[in-house]
């Protein structure tokens, strides 16, 4: 599957993208045969509609695509993508200026409409190709599409083929592709290198836990990305129900998203010193599994009382964040499919994030809309700190009460970032529960495009 634009020199057919209010004016300049054809087909330029215009020999000579109203477009993303499959193969070139000036978003959506996960069954249908619209940075848009496809592929792949070792292989492949350095600490070496909580969470599985550490770039500010790589989560001894376990192949969505973001950063050659840390584990059940009421000592030296083995993601992230914090990067970001509470709070479409950095929060929010990558700021609410303090250890990994679960998880992680002023945590879903334009049901990137767009302002690139 290649999500790319048609070559610039292609003999492309013109595609007229029209709002309902502009259809009549366009028709006035068309020959009678075209006006009759549009009327006979009932084309009204509604969002998601498309119509081929035939020439005298019956072959298409142009196309129409409905862009709907601004109100209709505000209810979703990638407005054009919903109609791409209704066109012939083309290739096509957009012949007019799009109302609203969202050409980059629509160009990306067109490419993403061609994504399918067909590793195990089916085939990827050939989608109509588009010539990169004038003024669009085609290489950048293709990079964003390829990075999103990587995220989706990783999340969609079942745990049988995407365990810690396979996740490491993907990171190694990216390192080779972009000339990055990579080190991996595996199995009992995690204890020797002082990553006790990563080891504790992963030790019950025959698939050895590991910490993946990728570095790229030798100039510019230091950016560190930490992604939760729980390749499958049974819940451990606090075993999940079958229904709750059904989607746990996606519990490495944080790792997938930081790898997708890292891929974009490296492909676009941003002037940063990039580091990617991924604690990769499988939270399984065996005689060596960590237990409720165990107390673990973290890399940071903080002790953690285990009140639910199903709150394991924050444990592996904590050791990785502690390592990242030792280097005091200019910006530290963590991404994880961490809590169901975040889904209750904002649903599946928004990526909630936590930060105490006002400049980062503002830049990210501004970048989010144009990047078609919605985010929503949540609070590091200091009065809830006492909820994560159990009394017989420094921290509680699963506070009782059931309230503010996403906030308390974020506060837990913040305890491991003490020397890095600029830190943000993303509690993402990384899953599209029902098909939408340019987003088939399945794995999804949430946050990387908004972060990428915000980095120049945030880091002064």
TrEMBL record:
Gene Ontology biological process terms in this record: proteolysis
UniProt domain Cytosol aminopeptidase: residue ranges: 308-315
InterPro entries per the UniProt record, alphabetical: Leucine_aapep/pepB, Macro_dom-like, Peptidase_M17_C, Peptidase_M17_N_1
Keyword Ligase recorded: no
A Pfam entry, by short name: Peptidase_M17_N_1
Any one Gene Ontology cellular component term annotated for this protein: cytoplasm
Gene Ontology MF terms in the entry: manganese ion binding; metalloaminopeptidase activity
UniProt keywords, alphabetically: Aminopeptidase, Hydrolase, Manganese, Protease
Family of the protein in this entry: Belongs to the peptidase M17 family.
Protein name: Leucyl aminopeptidase
Source species: Salipiger marinus
């Amino acid at each position: 599957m290649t999500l790319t634009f048609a070559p610039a020199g292609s003999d492309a057919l013109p595609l007229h993208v029209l709002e309902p209010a502009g259809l009549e004016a366009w028709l006035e300049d068309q020959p009678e045969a075209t006006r009759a054809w549009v009327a006979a087909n009932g084309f009204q330029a509604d969002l998601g509609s498309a119509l081929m215009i035939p020439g005298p020999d019956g072959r298409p000579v142009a196309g129409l695509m409905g862009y709907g109203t601004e109100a209709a477009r505000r209810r979703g993303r990638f407005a054009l993508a919903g109609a791409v499959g209704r066109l012939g193969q083309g290739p096509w070139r957009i012949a007019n200026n799009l109302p609203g000036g969202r050409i980059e978003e629509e160009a990306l959506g067109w490419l993403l409409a061609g994504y399918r996960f067909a590793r195990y069954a089916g085939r990827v249908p050939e989608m109509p190709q588009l010539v990169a619209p004038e003024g669009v940075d085609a290489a950048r848009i293709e990079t964003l599409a390829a990075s999103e496809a990587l995220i989706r592929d990783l999340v969609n792949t079942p745990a049988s083929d995407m365990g810690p070792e396979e996740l490491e292989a993907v990171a190694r492949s990216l390192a080779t592709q972009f000339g990055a350095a990579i080190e991996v600490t595996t199995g009992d070496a995690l204890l020797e290198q002082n990553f006790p909580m990563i080891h504790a969470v992963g030790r019950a599985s025959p698939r050895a836990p590991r910490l993946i550490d990728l570095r790229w770039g030798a100039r510019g500010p230091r950016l560190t990305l930490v992604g939760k790589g729980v390749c499958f989560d049974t819940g451990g001894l606090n075993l999940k129900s079958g229904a709750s376990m059904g989607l746990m192949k996606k519990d490495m969505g944080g790792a997938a998203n930081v790898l997708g973001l890292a891929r974009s950063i490296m492909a676009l050659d941003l002037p940063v010193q990039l580091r990617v840390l991924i604690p990769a584990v499988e939270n399984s059940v065996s005689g060596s599994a960590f237990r409720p009421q165990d107390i673990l000592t973290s890399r940071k030296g903080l002790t953690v009382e285990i009140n639910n083995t199903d709150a394991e993601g924050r444990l592996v992230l904590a050791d990785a964040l502690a390592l990242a914090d030792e280097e005091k990067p200019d910006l530290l970001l963590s991404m994880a499919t961490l809590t169901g509470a975040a889904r209750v709070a904002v649903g599946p479409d928004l990526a909630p994030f936590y930060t105490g950095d006002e400049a980062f929060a503002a830049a990210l929010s501004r970048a989010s809309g144009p990047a078609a990558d919605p985010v929503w700021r949540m609070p590091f609410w200091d009065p809830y700190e006492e909820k994560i303090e159990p009394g017989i250890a420094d921290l509680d990994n699963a506070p009782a009460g059931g309230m503010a679960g996403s906030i308390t998880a974020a506060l837990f992680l913040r305890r491991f970032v003490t020397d890095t002023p600029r830190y943000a945590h993303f509690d993402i879903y990384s899953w599209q529960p029902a098909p939408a334009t340019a987003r088939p049901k399945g794995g999804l990137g949430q946050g990387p495009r908004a972060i990428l767009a915000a980095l120049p302002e945030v880091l002064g690139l």
